[in-house]
Give the backbone structure.
Amino acid sequence: MTDEPKLIDPFQRAITYLRVSVTDRCDFRCVYCMSEHMTFLPKKDLLTLEELDRLCSAFISQGVKKIRVTGGEPLVRRGIIGFFQAMSRHLDSGALSELTLTTNGSQLHKYAAELAAAGVKRVNISLDTLDEKKFAEITRWGRLAQVLKGIDAAQTAGLKVKINMVALKNFNDSELFDVVQWCAERGMDLTLIEVMPMGEDIGNEDRLGQYWSLDDVRTALAARYHLSPLPDSTGGPARYMRVMETGQRIGFITPLSHNFCESCNRVRLTCTGQLFQCLGQEGEFDLRKVLRDNPTEEAPVITALHEAITHKPKGHDFDYSRQSVSGKMTRHMSHTGG
Ligand code: SAM
Ligand code: SF4
């Protein structure tokens, strides 16, 4: 058997990483992600858990090594633990190297142990502030205490936790050092994310006003700590630094200030089975139709994956330069999966 990746896009990037959104629903309503009153997709449009398994397994058979489950909030999807348990067979066989998830943490106190038992080793938990009031403000429906309980449960279950924090000017800039310190004390890495111009119809956002360039964040951190650049090991959008004083890694996801597309090795599957080859472009490919047209045959599904990958674009067009937002997307992060 050969280890050669089998899904290669037109720019010679091997596709080894799949992000899967398993639901568009969420128990939070973060202001940069959703409107307060969302209309969610009808259930029949969603891939069933069996269909999700079929598609993920097809990707794995074609060289995908890492799967990240996301949403919406993945842990509010009914039966999702069964999906993780079923997917763990690919970890056991060695075909899949990593099964992981990004979550808002609200349900982790219930599920952390089962996730760990299914072979999940790491989890990304989104947390933009450690201030209870601000947390309620940014997530609208979230409660900080519940997420902190989820983080405790994850660590107790032996999951390695990374915190994702969207950098928001005039919101959490004053907390930067507190969050770095808090993560360090708990042995957690931290990834900072520039706010992206997604879902412009959500009504109350001011992307440009909220935008806090991670160049500025890095400058602020470098004034206090010794930062040592780390080589990229993920092929992903984050660039990493080691904080020498604490030993933790800090990641910077900078879709706006630095385009990272040239090394992109990932595609995204929505909960309706659309394959997005790029987070920031409209191009998509309907894999649900292929699945439903071929309920028992895998060969057409594999052919469709290869066809879809030939459409992966070179990169996205987000741009905040000249103080205006261009290249913005109409769809929400909760649809494509962040
Ligand atoms: N519900 C889960 C969570 O919040 O972690 C998973 C899905 S969420 C869409 C994935 C990530 O996208 C989160 O870290 C969230 O902060 C980030 N996100 C959502 N909207 C964003 C935006 N407009 N710009 C930057 N990051 C965003
Ligand atoms: Fe839900 Fe995550 Fe979007 Fe917040 S960022 S509304 S937790 S999907």
Remarks:
- Residues 111 and 292 are 31 Å apart (CA to CA).
